[in-house]
Write a structure and sequence with these properties.
This protein is mostly helical. Helices cover about 80% and strands about 0% of the residues.
């Protein structure tokens, strides 16, 4: 090939690469703009262009996609991209992704799975305070809920006597005679252990009486 033909061929090749770079930069700018303007459905589409049309692969891109889908209420898609981001070599980013995945699961009432996500977030980055807060809050709630369920399971079925005494106490409460209502319930409990089915009611009466006596 002569030098002139080689040079002409070079000029045919270079502009196509310039065009791709220019289109890529425009696509990136478009995706950044739509996200910044909180146009989340559009942002998700714009970010998918970077993946599908330009074959870009990045955990940061995955996280942006997850957030865009999340805020656009496309939660299944968001969960998929959060899961992909958890594989990032950037431990801080992976921790954020685990935390967000936990939030999605928590909103679906899949609490044990959510707790596991928050725990993974802390393993990736012990300094992730949001994940720590979410983990501790959910763990505490789950413990209390388990205790409540156990308490409910062991609560006795009130007898007819217990039901009558509860109705009597209710009438006294309607008259703001809280101390008298408490006495009725305590006396009834001494006679019939199934009155313990109303222990929360009795405790509430105790609190009110103590406040009134101060």
């Amino acid at each position: 090939m002569s030098w002139s033909k080689w040079i002409f061929g070079l000029f045919l090749i270079i502009p196509s690469s310039w065009t791709r770079v220019s289109r890529l930069n425009s696509a990136i700018e478009k995706a950044e703009t739509s996200y910044a303007e909180a146009k989340y459905p559009e942002s998700a589409e714009d970010h998918l262009v970077l993946v599908n049309d330009f074959q870009l692969k990045s955990s940061y891109l995955d996280f942006d996609l997850a957030l865009s889908h999340h805020y656009a209420d496309k939660l299944e898609e968001a969960a998929t991209y959060y899961d992909q981001t958890t594989q990032s070599e950037d431990k801080v980013l992976a921790s954020f992704a685990y935390n967000q995945g936990g939030v999605l699961l928590g909103n679906k009432q899949e609490y044990q799975a959510a707790l596991s996500k928050f725990q993974s977030a802390l393993i990736k980055d012990p300094g992730n305070e949001q994940a720590r807060y979410n983990y501790e809050l959910l763990a505490r709630w789950l413990k209390r809920d388990e205790e409540r369920k156990e308490k409910e399971k062991n609560k006795p079925e009130p007898s007819e006597f217990a039901k009558r005494k509860k109705a009597e106490a209710d009438r006294l409460v309607e008259q703001f005679r809280f101390a008298d209502a408490l006495k009725v319930m305590n006396d009834a409990l001494a006679q019939d252990e199934t009155v313990a089915a109303y222990q929360d009611f009795i405790n509430s009466l105790k609190d009110v009486v103590e406040i009134n006596e101060k």
